[in-house]
């Protein structure tokens, strides 16, 4: 699964999944969007239960533990796994027009059965689903100070040896801590410290893939010890 970090471009994967009995709870480091096509899928997210019937939908946020179990003869859902931060705005509310979203999901499900002739639709499917769920509001962000997330990520990567805080990040972004925390949730789909942890872990993975030892990687990325880094990578 992709690493959910701002220094990487958003990634998406559309799938048509037939659910049966539960296989146990789990969590992802990306958003998972489920749109019911057939049957009823019972879902529990962080202890909150719900049912996804045909035409209904649910967004599971990164890090949320969840479990699925289909009723009776199973359930079929269109599933989008995505690192697009804009889905954070959709996680706590239903789509404004579920009929439109359901029609789009059924269309994309048909496209997945003939991918060679539907490549364009499948390529733009994730963006269309997001647009159907959360139509773009009238622009009110033009006057907001833009956050250069890539530049901020580079600044943080050079300071893993320091105990970075939300206030530190906010100061670099020229915002108050509360403003920065809200912008991080809106634009990155996670809290500021979670964003920082995901960035640090992504850097550690990058160094390990390059052949660096666990001990040196831990030292460079600010983990307390090699065992703390190993535990984080396993999680």
From TrEMBL:
Does DNA-binding show up as a keyword for this record?
Answer: yes
- Which keywords label this protein? DNA-binding, Transcription, Transcription regulation
Q: Where is the HTH araC/xylS-type domain?
A: 150-235
Q: Can you provide one Gene Ontology molecular function annotated for this UniProt record?
A: sequence-specific DNA binding
Q: Which InterPro entries match?
A: AraC-bd (IPR003313), AraC_XylS_family_regulators (IPR050204), Homeodomain-like_sf (IPR009057), HTH_AraC (IPR018060), RmlC-like_jellyroll (IPR014710), RmlC_Cupin_sf (IPR011051)
UniProt-recorded name of the protein: AraC-like DNA-binding protein
Species of the source? Variovorax guangxiensis
């Amino acid at each position: 699964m992709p690493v959910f970090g701002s220094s990487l471009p958003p990634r998406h994967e559309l799938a048509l999944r037939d659910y049966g009995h539960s296989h146990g709870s789990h969590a992802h480091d990306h958003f998972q969007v489920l749109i019911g096509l057939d049957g009823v899928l019972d879902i529990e997210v962080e202890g909150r239960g719900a049912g996804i019937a045909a035409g209904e939908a649910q967004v599971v946020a990164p890090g949320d533990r969840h479990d699925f179990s289909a009723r009776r003869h199973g359930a079929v859902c269109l599933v989008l796994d995505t690192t697009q931060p804009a889905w954070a705005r959709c996680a706590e509310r239903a789509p404004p027009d579920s009929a439109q979203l359901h029609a789009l999901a059924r269309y994309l499900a048909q496209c997945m059965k003939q991918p060679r002739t539907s490549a364009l639709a499948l390529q733009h499917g994730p963006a269309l689903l997001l647009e159907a769920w959360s139509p773009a509001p009238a622009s009110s962000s033009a006057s907001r100070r833009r956050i250069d997330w890539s530049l901020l990520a580079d600044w943080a990567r050079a300071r893993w040896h320091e105990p970075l805080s939300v206030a530190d990040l906010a100061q670099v972004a020229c915002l108050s801590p509360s403003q920065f925390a809200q912008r991080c949730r809106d634009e990155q789909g996670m809290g500021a410290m979670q964003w920082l942890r995901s960035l640090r872990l992504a850097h550690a993975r990058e160094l390990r893939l390059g052949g660096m030892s666990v001990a040196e990687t831990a030292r460079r990325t600010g983990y307390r010890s090699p065992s703390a880094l190993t535990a984080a990578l396993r999680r």
